[in-house]
Amino acid sequence: MIKEMDKDKIDKKDHILDVAERVFSELGFDGASTRVISGEAGVNMAMLNYYFGSKEGLFVAIIDRKITSSQVILQSISKDESMSAWDKIASYVDMYSERMLSNNCFQKLLYQEMGMNRRTELSDNIRNILMKNVTELTKIINEGIDSGEFKKETDIELIIATLYGTKNYIVNMPLMSSQMLGYDIQDDKILEEKLKPRLKTFMKNLLKSYLLNEHDN
Description:
- The chain is built from ten helices and no strands.
- By secondary structure, the chain is an all-alpha fold.
């Protein structure tokens, strides 16, 4: 059972992370400052530095929180012995599309930072966090290959790149994507009613036709 003092500490950290995520989304990593974030969060600089150490530490903590929550779900899917490998992939596509197409501003900020290909401690930390889900997804695909459900010649790395790359293209080029798709993907209502269902259906159909052995189709 979490002690009241520990709960207060967790609540304060989550509040700071919520505010920081919004500020980073609005101002970008370089434009945001810990002073602005602490002011918006209503906490002093000493508290922010105590919890996160630096602006880089705060940014990594935001990403870690988002990815860890997805990883917990993915690990639960991966360990479910009642599901086939394909059912696990389909469930992940649904979860990934739902969560990663939300808060497009932060998603765009994250992949802009990654796209700079900077070999810094910050970039290395971000890559290591993102690789957690890549590792879990690789396990599921290998499970399908080993069981004969998926084709032996499956290119695991490019399958994962296709899944993530499709979303990244849409998020990072919203004006181009909107023109191409025929509706404004930055409209929340359209995002929920049109884009998310369309992406889920497309990715599952694409992956199913590539992964499954013919006798399973």
